[in-house]
Amino acid sequence: MFFLKELPSQQMVEGYAKRFSVKDPTAVQGALTMMRDTSLLLRELEGYFSKHGTSQLRFLVMIVIDREPQRDSLLASEIAERIDVSRPVMTRTLKSMVEDELIAMETNSSDGRAKCVALTKSGENFLQEILPGYFKAISNFMKELNK
Amino acid sequence: MFFLKELPSQQMVEGYAKRFSVKDPTAVQGALTMMRDTSLLLRELEGYFSKHGTSQLRFLVMIVIDREPQRDSLLASEIAERIDVSRPVMTRTLKSMVEDELIAMETNSSDGRAKCVALTKSGENFLQEILPGYFKAISNFMKELNK
DNA sequence: ACAATATAGTTATCATGGTAACTATGTTAA
DNA sequence: TTAACATAGTTACCATGATAACTATATTGT
Question: Which nucleotide lies nearest residue A89, CA to C1'?
Answer without folding.
Answer: D17
